[in-house]
Amino acid sequence: MTVQKQLAGFLLQIKAIKLDPANPFTWASGWRSPIYCDNRKTLSWPDIRSFIRDAFVSLIHQHYPGAEGIAGVATGAIGIGALVADRMGLPFVYVRSKPKGHGLENLIEGEVVQGRKTVVVEDLISTGKSSLNAVKALRDAGMPVLGMGAIFTYNFPLAEEKFRKSGCPLFTLTDYFHLIDVAVATGYVREEQLETLRQWRKDPENWRK
Length: 209
Known about the structure:
six-stranded mixed β-sheet, 39% helix, Rossmann fold, 21% strand, alpha/beta, globular, two-stranded antiparallel sheet, 7 helices
């Protein structure tokens, strides 16, 4: 079994990803969705978080052998990003969604070193907006971003286009298509529910408004 399918199975098993076409979820963005993803849950499962950590380390060595530091995107990727940095013996920082409202008002927490080649670790890619805001913050601070790795992506074309335009390569450990394959194979969703999922992916912003 591939890493993508194995991890998709793990995420369904621990309900880090929930599929419920009949009872849609509402995202923070206001979008309605038959899928909800909370990869923070993986931190509570030692074997699964180790699997994710090791998969990230392997792919970072493969794609970005010149990496000198790891950055996590707050809040969902702080934990796994720190685990990846620890295993690789590299410095770690994390990027807030906005500057802290007191004290030093940091946007990036940790030691900012200009010129340090950094790989960003993210838990989830949906539209790509918040993830690429973190990339911009690091670049603005003088830290070259080699690329980003994420646990899961919905494979939205608009996100893929944003990453292309930003010049930030992206790899993911698993994705929407592998998730659906595993969900159908294991009986998590039925064949007749696939049409609902297909309709949602055509226009997720306006689905069931």
